[in-house]
Amino acid sequence: DGGDPQRTAWQRDERVIRTANVKNMKLLWKIKLDNQPREMHNLLPALVVGRVSTTGGPKQIVIVTGVSDNIYAIHADKGELLWKHHFETSWTPPPGGRGVYVLCPGGITATPVIGLGDAPGKYTLYAAAWDGTLRRLNVADGKEVAPPAKFMPPNGKPYALNLVNNVVYTHTAQGCGGNPNMVYTYDLATNKVGSWGPPGGGMWGRTGPAISSTGVLYTGTGDGPWDPENRIYGNGIIGVKQNPQTKAVELVDYYGPTNAEWLWKRDLDMQVTPAIFNYKGKELMVDAGKECVVYLMDTESIGGDDHRTPLHRTPLICNEEVNFASAGIWGSMATWEDSKGTRWALTPFWGPKHSKFKAPIEYGPIKYGAIAAFK
After folding, report:
1. For 17-37, how does the pLDDT look when each residue is reduced to its tens digit (9 = 90+)?
2. Cα–Cα distance between 362 and 365 in angstroms, integer?
């Protein structure tokens, strides 16, 4: 949950993973895990892997990551713990927890990603441990299938990992451990690491970066000015791509809202994970930020010739009071196409909706947040 102080004590302390029949809302099982919380962080979003080949036959497995360098595998049908793996490391954390606080908890901060193995039913989990190494586990039994590999500096704060065409992607923010905010890639075929940083701009979309069909990583930035002439890309959206020969990461596209300087001064970061989709022969992307505006872009050129013009931007959905800390769009965008071929784009938002924003269909008054859906 990212350490939301508004959660109740029960929600913070119970540490329960539940699955339910959505139609009837019947509790199927619950399990309490032994992960130790760190600075208001505890369990990361769960991953579900279907029909994993195990010694006991095929199983659907729920993978849950704990901030204290723990990975848990739970039998989805029975709610039983199948295995737990704790990442051991020779790295020594700072004495007295130096540099560790609510925004920089230490431990695992990036949700892992699951990749296909070399045979049906075999899956590999890729995770970034507290020491910055890339870890690879067999989803069936939790055993490491390769030695830890250098990926990022230790004690940083990477966000969720993404895996596309044998390359692991992530980005970091908030300068945790004294490390710069960077994009990182790990090429699994060559074991080469690439990195790129937009000086002054942290990248903290909650579910990490989005990857286009051409291998471009897109993510929003924050906490810095927008000054592309001097290679500073805060409070915008950047696109970087792995060089196929050197495996280095290079900037290939960027977008800055026309009011980017004002966004920076008001701490209205563009810190949302984009969603990319195909629509009528084009690959499009939606993204947003704390200002509470949604941007629609073409991945051929997300900001047009001047890097300041998206295909469309919505009016303000929320954040009428221009609050940088407890309103706006945070987290991740979502998209799907329904059975009639209609493409939908969804965004969460925090706080009451803007007084001038009216949706054709609304359900009740909005005081603390909602989901907005666009066609």
Report:
1. 455 455 678 899 999 999 999
2. 8
